[in-house]
Hints:
Elements: H1 3-14, H2 26-35, H3 41-54, H4 58-63, H5 66-73, H6 80-94, H7 104-107, H8 115-126, H9 135-145, H10 154-167, H11 173-186, H12 205-208, E1 225-235, E2 240-241, E3 244-245, E4 256-257, E5 260-263, H13 269-273, E6 287-291, E7 297-300, E8 304-315, E9 323-324, H14 335-344
Parallel strand pairs: 1-8
Antiparallel strand pairs: 1-5, 2-9, 3-4, 6-8, 7-8
InterPro entries: A/G_AdeGlyc_MutY, DNA_glycosylase, HhH-GPD_domain, HhH_base_excis_C, HhH_motif, MIG/MutY, MutY_C, NUDIX_hydrolase-like_dom_sf
Family: Belongs to the Nth/MutY family.
EC number: 3.2.2.31
Amino acid sequence: MNFTKEIINWYSIHKRNLPWRTSKNPYFIWLSEIILQQTQVKQGLPYYDAFVKQFPTVFDLANASEETVLKLWQGLGYYSRARNLHAAARYIVFELKGEFPDNYKDLIQLKGVGDYTASAIASIAFDEATAVVDGNVYRLLSRYFGIETPINSTKGIKEFKQLASVLLDKDKPGNYNQAVMEFGALQCRPKNPNCNGCRLKESCVALQKNCVDNLPVKLRKTKVSTKYFNYLVCLDTKKRTVFEKRTGKGIWRNLYQFPLIETEKSLSIDEFALLNLNDTFLKDMPFDYTLYNEVDKVHKLSHQHLHTKFWIIEVKDSLNNATPLHKLKKYPTPVLITDFINEFNFEVL
């Protein structure tokens, strides 16, 4: 069986009608690839539409503020993607005079662009014969060829890239790359793959050996840590609050949040009363407080689980450098904070 030919034939019948597939414009292809990193198409599509509407060209994206970009990205997670997207757009416009890189070697120099993304853009937009290897491709190739090399090992990354390059249709690399990714996404799914209706089933090693669910193999992930967050949600006499911009190098850098106190465990009301809040903006300020949620709100990230409580602090005076409550939704915030703002409904206060 000709693997490459079968994949392309399948794609010609089953490919989804997605907006970035109607153009060879590298900006649109790049934008879609960055959005869809670690994001499913159904979740990423509305964001792609919103970005294209607000930033129809790379010049528009480059000239936007980072805060505007982060706000539009809000809810997608992995915010470094948005920051890198913006930085790369500025580099293209201000350093490359708006000329989008047209080959793998130059594309991979863009911030936030790795081997997969550079290969995708180079092949789809510019017909360069470079193979893509994403999660869908790893899964399909490991199952079809029965490869047990861990896909997140140095050896595995090299092995799968070499195999993908051998299978690549050199005449129509962009079409084939999209086909093999689409096949993995729709046919050879992570769970409940459609093996019975698969045109490759007669020669699929994993199906023959009854080990479909065991492939691909991944090395054990880094241990997930647990953190305990306490957000101080202040309300003053003028319907304002304290809203801070995160700094540092964390994943939520440049996003906004309420003042945060991290503790070693989840606090009860009595334990919260023992905290020394004189080290915060509440120093020498009279206030009352209540606990908004007795049960921790658990927010799961790839590397840590956040157990969170929100403490409502009512101060009996006006706050300095405070933010009006009705403006909170204008700021880019982590999903954890966004959900609380929507749930608490400050607008009715």
